[in-house]
Design a protein that fits this description.
The protein has one domain: Rossmann fold, CATH 3.40.50.1360. It has eight helices and nine strands. The protein starts with 7 loop residues before the first strand and ends in a 9-residue tail after the last strand. It has 249 residues and is α/β, with parallel strands linked by helices. Bound molecules: ligand LXAUTJHC. The site of the ligand O=C1O[C@H](COP(=O)(O)O)[C@@H](O)[C@H](O)[C@H]1O has 13 residues, from loops. Its EC number is 3.1.1.31. InterPro entries: 6-phosphogluconolactonase_DevB, 6PGL, Glc/Gal-6P_isomerase, NagB/RpiA_transferase-like. Keywords: Hydrolase. Hydrolysis of 6-phosphogluconolactone to 6-phosphogluconate.
Length: 249
Amino acid sequence: MTANEQRRVIGVADAAALAMAAAERVLARIAENSGRVAICLTGGSSPKQLYQLLATETYRSRIPWQRVHWFIGDERFVPADDPLNNMGLARAAFLDQCAPAANIHPIPTATADPADPDRAASLYEEELRSFYRADTLDRARPLFDLVLMGVGPDGHTASLFPGDPALDETARWVVGVPRANVEPFVPRVTLTLLTLASCREMLFEVAGWPKRAILTRLFAGENLPANRARSTGETIWLVDREALPEDFG
Ligand SMILES: O=C1O[C@H](COP(=O)(O)O)[C@@H](O)[C@H](O)[C@H]1O
């Protein structure tokens, strides 16, 4: 089976349409679970429109905020109020206005020793295990209902960079990344592929012409982190017209 056969690519017109399509998928995944819902958010700039949309009345009124928990797939060692803080962006765009504080689960980079991404990773791993109420991920009971993902110009996803040993981690749920390959060049913490995979749906959001070059390489099957990220359920790539490689439709 090729990499492309394992994922579904959905093309949309532009970044605004992409945010709306992603918001509908968020609602659909929430509606499928009548209990406690877990959503793992992504960082970077790509999800900003989606996050802002979720705070609008149209979407806000359709989300049962009390039973939805919000996690983050990776974090950068920058202050919590720095615009480059991944959870900080989500908080400012929608979480702080809409979600109960107890349902927001940031990676503790602001409180942990800045020199020790492994310590922050361990703390977050403990938090995830306690939320999941088990130490072993069971394919039949995914940790997350939905995992949002982005892709960087080098093919990284979350803070899993090409060639990094973190990609081959099979025991830890969360790891420290001493130095990123791309800006901001700060230590990071990232969920591992095994943890990100434990979801009913993994949803990549990719928009804009600067992403077309890396998508061309990824859809050709190159062995890059974003190609190794797969859900045990469905893996969907929402891509706008500017980012979609020419031979892809
Ligand atoms: O560094 C990161 O980059 C990726 C991609 O970000 P984008 O700005 O190109 O959307 C992101 O998915 C990840 O969470 C972030 O830490």
